Description:
The protein is of the alpha+beta class. The protein folds into three domains: 1-165, 2-Layer Sandwich (Alpha-Beta Plaits), CATH 3.30.70.270; 171-227, 5' to 3' exonuclease, C-terminal subdomain (DNA polymerase, domain 1); 243-384, DNA polymerase, Y-family, little finger domain (Dna Ligase, domain 1), CATH 3.30.1490. It is 38% helix and 21% strand. The chain is built from 15 helices and twelve strands. The protein has helices spanning 14-22, 47-50, 60-66, 77-94, 114-117, 120-135, 147-154, 170-174, 187-195, 201-206, 209-216, 219-227, 260-280, 314-325, 355-374; strands spanning 6-11, 31-34, 42-45, 71-74, 98-102, 105-109, 139-144, 162-164, 246-257, 283-294, 300-311, 334-346. Strands 5-6-1-7-8 form a five-stranded mixed beta sheet. Helix 4 (77-94) runs antiparallel to helix 6.
Amino acid sequence: METRTILHIDANAFFASVEQAANPELRGKPIAVVGGHGRTVITTSSYEARAKGVKTGMAIWEGKRHCPELIIVVGDNKKYQHTSTKMNEIFRDCTPEVEAFSIDESWLDVTHSLSIFGNAENIAYLIKARIKYQFDITVSIGIAPNKLLAKLASDMHKPDGLTVIAPENVARTLELMPIQELCGVGKKMQRHLNMLSIYTCGELGRCDEARLTRKFGIIGKRLKQMGRGIDHSPVVQFAEEVDVKSVGHSSTLERDISDPVEIRRFLLQLSEMVGSRARRYSVSGKTIHLYVRYADFFSSWGKQTTLKNYINQSDEIYRAALGILETVELEQPVRLLGISLSNLKHQAEQLPLFEDERKKLFATQAMDTLNDRFGRMSVTYGTLLPGKETAGSHVIPPSWRPDGIKNVDVE
């Protein structure tokens, strides 16, 4: 098998760095980016704030307790989307094989670009220089034989790091590396592995595969491979994304709501976001999942329903989600709502038999065309107009991608 050369590029404190680059008065100061109007938790903080103990996910009051001089900045998702998209254009100047992992992380397979640039380090330094010059932000880059190790490497030296894990050094690097440093090993998995007396990647790689399989099922084999630094997954280009299992969107509300009219309006907005994306990529689904998180932040629930027919029309998604909501008595005001469409299939749009359905299809197509041209919500349902300015969230979803079906255009 051909030895690959993979880069993982991680923009350092991305949201905060973009804000500091845009506003010179914020440079060198502890700032925290929040979702909107000071309502949401801290989405990211600058390195100056992190040095004072401010972390992602903290409530604003908690961040200020650690750092009284903390500056709160309301996030500008359009700015972050633009920067991320332009960064990925820089990456594609080096190789067509680029996979955006999130808004601030991408993998590049530069195996076939080495003959042009000389070596992977040259590519990494070129990317660093272009991003610094164009956006005045820094990135940390990991270079390794596969995606798993490249991401591990990019996390090893931050900010503005460049770390290489050569094939001959994989075993030595992993021997004492804590298992939680591996992408895909979360806190829950870490606890289960610790219960098996597995704390390092070296111990995971040496663990009996049958023991792991008995404990974790089919992923046991994968865990052992991860402990040994083995990862055969390809870098998936935008145009070659693996089959998407669901199309969804969830957002934190700017204030807790309990009014049924407001909740229904917000559900309709989410349904339109999900429906428009599904239609854009010619997918329909039968299963609608509704997720609700309450005002206390910790209490939540999710329910789903499977329909007889495949749908991607926003009003049909909305009715299904509303049907789920009506089966539940809300215990508290609502902090977050989410809707997803799954059980998908790709299909070409067929002209409906009945005239009323054809009119509805043509109206939807016209609305989608205008919104694609002039921006999301340029044309929308009349129900959303009274609350259009404040109905949504300013928190960018983790599933955002610069291109493809996972690209969510948020305000």
